[in-house]
Design goal:
single chain; alpha/beta; Rossmann fold; Arc Repressor Mutant, subunit A; 3 domains; five-stranded parallel β-sheet; two-stranded antiparallel ribbon; 18 helices; about 10% strand; DNA binding; AAA+_ATPase; nucleotide-binding
Length: about 400
Amino acid sequence: MAVFSFADPSSHAITIRAKALTFDDPKSRVLLERVQLVAPSDATVLVTGESGTGKELIARLVHSLSERRDGPFVAINCGAFSETLIESELFGHERGAFTGAVASQPGWFESANRGTLFLDEVGDLPLAAQVKLLRVLQEREVVPVGSRKPVKIDVRLVAATNVNLEAAVRAGNFREDLYYRLNVVKLSLLPLRERPGDIAPLIDHFLESYSKRLRNARPTLTAAALTRLHEHSWPGNIRELENVIHHAVLVSSGGVIDVADLHFSALALAAPLERETAPAHGSGGRTERPSDIAEASAALRAAVVDLLDLGTPQLWQHIEEAVYRSVFEYSEHNQLRTSRLLDLSRNIVRARLAQLGLLKLRDAGDVADAGESGALHRASGEERDAGQSGRRQA
């Protein structure tokens, strides 16, 4: 089966997203059949899956198979903008609506009119923006910041997330009514390790792609290298596979890629190794650890009872802080991995880590500052003219 990818994959930074997708594995073919069934409609679609599995490519495939295929496809990342500017980005603003708004600017909904708007990392939207997004979906109109006049829109919405929105709803971090509005059609992308039939076609695709880009003869894989590629757990999914093949094409010699040419992330190996070698906390140096989830859960319940017996004040806050600290240390102070393990959005995790003093305020605000700076730059018209704004039109 053919590989589905961006029209010009080389124009996209390699670390941003998965840039190729195939449906050779039987589980992937089931997903493709579902996409083909729902794409012709105008139903709102929620795409779920781990980072690097190809959620934006699924959104583009839905667009290309729909009646809106000749209209614009606009993709933005909801986590790329600060909380104060996300509304003007989505819904537009009038001149003078806020400092730096030197001219009226349409939002992404208006830019995607008669086409498809893809909201990536929708779980990162602040609650205030969620309220307005819900109204847009209900009324099919936007009200730009600083204006009282609604603007009618004709847009199909495809949203994506790598966090558990149901858990976010229960935690009060995501509106339940918005969740139901988005979850009309759900397309779940399995991680690459659960669809091994897709690995070989993707390897062939990336070998061919990078050989052409580097103007090299296509190298061949030794049997040992191919076996190693199939045995890897691919925590970074398609994105990681592409990086591994790119590196191998660069460093291989003699037109052959061997195991030594494959560079894998240490993230998938570091944590299990630490669990095997580190003594259990409070065990006096003993290395015995729970043998399964049930045993570990029983130990957790026993620890909660101990805290109750000790009269621990603010019990829930105490437990929550312990969870955040443990997962953050387990993740070697990596915020992205912490958010994945907790199944929460990065913005929520970043804010809580800062409250606990585990992040410097400057570090916690870096992403928000970057999003605000990029948004102001776009407001002046420079980003849109240069094609560097977060929008990518098909």
